[in-house]
Amino acid sequence: MDQETFSAVDKFIEQTILSEDEALRGAVDAAEAAGLPAIQVSPPQGKLLQLLVRLVGAKRILEFGTLGGYSAILMARALPEDGRLITLEAKPEYAEVAQRSVERAGVGDRVEVRVGPALEALPRLVEEGAGPFDLVFIDADKVNTPSYFAWALDRTRPGGLIVADNVVRDGTLADASATDDAAQAQRRLHEMLAGEPRASATTIQTVGVKGYDGFLIALVEGA
Ligand code: SAH
Ligand code: DHB
Ligand code: MG
After folding, report:
1. What pTM does this model have?
2. What is the DSSP code string of 17-41?
3. Which of 4, 21, 44, 68 has the fewest Cβ atoms within 10 Å of its own Cβ atom?
4. Which atom of ligand 2 is closest in space to residue 40's alpha carbon?
5. Nearest CA to ligand 1 atom 12
6. Ligand 1 proximity of 162 Cβ (cutoff 6 Å)
7. How far does the centroid of ligand 1 lie from the alpha carbon of residue 64, in Å?
């Protein structure tokens, strides 16, 4: 089994059970044209995010890491009319591309793109009384995933979900001697969750168009 097969299967899934979408393709094309890296969630994973939004009946979503707005548009489309999504992006030039794609996709009224490092954006969100959130998607700088998770856990309602992307990282999650800071951070995240009564979590390994990785899903428990 190889990368070619993983990509072909993602393609088959996309062409059968995932519906084609002009605006989403537009967002991917705009990101590519602007030179953004093609590291958005895969189409099957994006559909999973949409299903999760609907399953928890989410109305308030927070995303760490906007890139070109692909996952933000997907999740926003699964929101009800009065639902809102805030997405945090460090790079102004990425945020600008995302903002345009979000508007073209017709979800400009539901999505707010905020520019700046997420750790700096968080105190302002608290001041504004944003949240509690129903779903938080963590997909920004991977070394900070544990910090974002800890912050999100305090601000996600019981029954809400926190999803963290890219935690398996070619299997380095299981390598205690991994020298990569991003890999160590995912190990720390899992160790953190081991003794955390406020969340019940699992990690699913994935293969697909983006290679071998995986995501963590945590359900926030009641008090
Ligand atoms: N969620 C997107 C992909 C995000 S890629 C999708 O699936 O469509 C990761 C993004 O996080 C990049 O755009 C990167 O610029 C951004 N990022 C990196 N460090 C960040 C930080 N400290 N704060 C906010 N965003 C950051
Ligand atoms: C990278 C970021 C992602 O969110 C992802 O899914 C894959 C790669 C990256 O920063 O390289
Ligand atoms: Mg990711």
Report:
1. 0.98
2. TSPP-HHHHHHHHHHHHTT--S-SP
3. 4
4. 6
5. 67
6. no
7. 6
